[in-house]
Amino acid sequence: MKKTLCMLLCIGMAAAMCACSPGEKKAGDAPKKTEGESKGLIGITTSMYTNEGLTIMCDTIKEKVEEEGYQAVIKDANLDQAQQTKDVEDFISQGAKLIIVEACDSVGVKSAFELCNKADIPVLSVNQVLGDDLLELVVGSVTSDNYTAGYEVGQEVAKELGGKGKVCILTYDVAFVCRERGDGFKAAMAENEGIEVLEVFDGVCTEDAAMKKTEDWLQQYPDVTAIFGNNSNCGVGIAAAVRSAGKTDDILVANVDGLSGDIRNMEDGALDITAVYPMKELAAEAADKAVEVLKTGKCGEDPRLKFSLCTIDDLDTYKEYWGIE
């Protein structure tokens, strides 16, 4: 019994000595987080993580909020709004401090926003364009000027065609970000009496679907002189079909996004005109807005960032932007 008591006293003295060692925290020192500890979960859900621009955006936001001491998780809805709503539900059940949504469907995402509101979790919308009724459900929005991007690409297409030609257009109106691009492009076409729009086909935003539809058009409209795609995936698909048909010299290919795949296609002569998405700038802006919401509960105005028109004359500038050798 005495030996046991002696041993306990020794342990207690050793612990007291350690507690007073110079390397330990003193009263008033900020507590250091242990490994794995965080300020809370930040949920990030995107429509298509495999899209290069959205990958950059999500990864940049994740890195920024993790620097602030939060844990961030990215979920890919793969263009499925029902899946995205389920992902939001999962984030809510995990007690997320903030949910960042790049919506699949500009209308269908409403139920996900309402779930966040009901759970009293702020939701930040990024990249996607929303109607006024949905903007009331989010703490903030970060987007770009997609209409002007489509319009300026359309103007350049009309210029290259000399104001005369036959055009096919791929749209994806369920996502307002793509709808605005298509609307801008169509407005530019309407300003040229000599340009005939052969067909506007809605519902395409993937490479395979764009390639298949372009192949159909090349059979249906052998005299088509220009084809427009609403995003980078469409641009790559259109370019592949036109290249395969041996018509790169006969058909003008244009799109909006100007990601690295587009710039490579332009270098190869398979893409003629694009509008480069300021994705790095939007990613940084979205990350800053996320941190602002976490710190203040508020968010500044939507920046509506501007695209940059790119033709073969601007190739070197955007090869450097995307780090293409």
TrEMBL record:
Record-linked Pfam families: Peripla_BP_4
Location of the protein in the cell:
Cell envelope
Q: What SUPFAM superfamilies is this protein classified in?
A: Periplasmic binding protein-like I
Q: Which GO terms describe its cellular component?
A: cell envelope
Give the top-rank taxon of the lineage listed in the UniProt record for this protein.
Answer: Bacteria
For this protein, what is any one GO molecular function term? carbohydrate binding
The principal localisation class reads: other
**Gene3D superfamilies linked to this entry:** 3.40.50.2300
State the name under which the record lists this protein.
Sugar ABC transporter substrate-binding protein
Kindly list the organism's lineage: Bacteria, Bacillati, Bacillota, Clostridia, Lachnospirales
